[in-house]
Design brief:
The protein has about 200 residues and is of the alpha/beta class. About 40% of the residues lie in helices and about 15% in strands.
Length: about 200
């Protein structure tokens, strides 16, 4: 079964892509963010049922499915739980769709970190920027997730997905390229992914 997974990162225009781009791809069926979360993230590790998911999406084996959830790499609230969560999600996707094509958006670390702190403050956080970035608490999976620099070391995620899906199936894009010229960027992405989309319908 053909599939494309857009896995993140957060703060790289993911909401815009989910609302305006992926639903307009003509030769594919876009699976909603909510359904993607319920299917791949919400189940307990010991209750993740590969056969049930395959049955759910096997109505047409030639139909291209597109899944998009920035939280596949972790979020700017949990920071991938020291890589545990990031890795678990990668393995879940691979168990169901081992031949999937993967889309990963990355962004300059200073900018995405600043955006993460702004979101933290908007959510009611009280740490200063210095305490937020340089807290002394031990980062562990059992405690409350705190800022983790390693979450933004993109090469680990790229290496993981390359090993699972093959480097030819992993497409890494720069958020800055999209922000600079959205229409030209989307045209290139459509060509690389071999999908069809009417750019004229999209307002970047």
């Amino acid at each position: 079964m053909k599939s494309i997974f857009h896995i993140g990162y957060p703060k790289t225009a993911t909401s815009w892509l989910q609302k305006n781009f992926f639903p307009n791809i003509q030769n594919a069926s876009y699976v909603s963010r909510h359904e993607t979360f319920e299917t791949f993230v919400q189940p307990n590790h010991f209750e993740f049922d590969v056969e049930q998911i395959l049955k759910k999406y096997s109505l047409n084996n030639n139909d291209l499915k597109i899944f998009s959830l920035e939280g596949f790499v972790g979020t700017t609230h949990n920071f991938g739980l020291n890589g545990y969560l990031t890795t678990e999600h990668a393995f879940r996707i691979h168990r169901v769709f081992p031949e999937a094509r993967i889309i990963l958006f990355i962004r300059k670390q200073p900018d995405i970190i600043a955006s993460s702190y702004i979101q933290y403050i908007k959510g009611g956080g009280t740490y200063s920027i210095k305490k937020f970035l340089f807290h002394q608490n031990f980062q562990n999976i059992a405690g409350m997730p705190l800022f983790n620099w390693k979450y933004f070391e993109y090469h680990h995620v790229i290496k993981l997905y390359n090993e699972l899906f093959g480097s030819g199936n992993v497409f890494v894009f720069l958020y800055e390229d999209f922000a600079k010229n959205g229409v030209d960027f989307l045209k290139r992405m459509i060509a690389m992914l071999q999908t069809e989309n009417k750019i004229s319908r999209i307002n970047c």
